[in-house]
Each structure stands twice: as structure tokens, then as C-alpha cells.
């Protein structure tokens, strides 16, 4: 996952994303922190929730061994890296990168629920690939929008806020374990609920109107 984040290090540390006008979700002008709080930070936890489900939670749910786990650990971030060219192009079109990413995450979680229900390793690997794609698109969207929205003197601080929000998603496997081991839900039910939540996040994100910030 560091490879994907590292590729965007330059964009998040100072220059404009793409050329010409820069698109900011949340409206023209105004407080950049407020803009990002409305349009970027709510989806940030999904950035790492998706891949950790793919290579931490799923292997155990389908009773996979170390080989499957190792392959999933490579496939998930690898897929995120492979979709970067598409994600960068999508990021130029308002909500496209975020919408594609969140829909991929919702689909991946639904596939993960089915894999857990059937204990199917092929379905689990399919879910892992889909979650990896969602990771790549949502990470690209988040870093692109932070770089486009934040004033130069606030860029480092707001980028750190985004990464902090994103890393909270790494608690997802632990939350799933708590809900299934000590709660009334089964793993497929928990993953289905997570898929629905990702879909709701996507719909909510589409309601935020983008604006334009000139460089």
C-alpha cells in the first residue's frame, strides 16, 4: 500500500493536480477544512477499511492457509496500484474517482459476504481484487482533492488529517471480530451491513457539489 501512497507523495506535498483549473469538492472558496470535512474525510476510512478486509479478515473467514493469505496480501495493494492510471483520469471528473471507488468497495464487501457464507476461496479472491480496486480509486480521489482544495500553507496539515482519517479504517477487521464474536451478527451479515454503509457513503458523496479553484 505504500507504493500507491508514495506515488501520490508529490501531488500531496505541493503542486497542482493536472493542469489548468483545479477542482475542489465542497464549493468555490470558503474554508478548505470545512470543504474537506464534508466531501473527502467521510470516505477516508474506506481507503484502508477495504484492503484490510481483503487480506486480513477474508482469509480467516474462508479457512484459508498462509499461501492464500500471502497471495491476497499482494493482490489487494497490487490491484490498487494497477488502477492508478484509470483513477487519475477519473479524478479529473468531479465525483468519478470517489464514486467508482466506493461502488467497488460496496461490491467487494458484498462479494466478501458471499465468500464468507459459502467459505469459497475463489469468491474471496474475487472480493479481494475488487476491494483493492476500490482502495486505489478512493485513495487517489482523497489525495487529489486535498491537493486541489488546500491552500499551500495548509497543505501538509490537511494531508495529515486525511491520512489520519484513512488509517482509522485499519480498525475494521477488529470491529468485525468484535461484532461477530461478541455480538448477534454473523460475518456475512456484518460484511453485508458494511457494503450497505459504503453504498450510503457513495450516495451522500454525490450530493456534495464540486466547485472550481484556480491555481
Automatic annotation (TrEMBL):
Residues 1-30 are annotated as: Disordered. It comes from Streptomyces aurantiacus JA 4570. The chain crosses the membrane at residues 64-83, 95-117, 123-143, 155-176. Keywords: Membrane, Transmembrane, Transmembrane helix. This is Major facilitator superfamily (MFS) profile domain-containing protein. InterPro entries: MFS_trans_sf (IPR036259). SUPFAM superfamilies: MFS general substrate transporter (SSF103473).
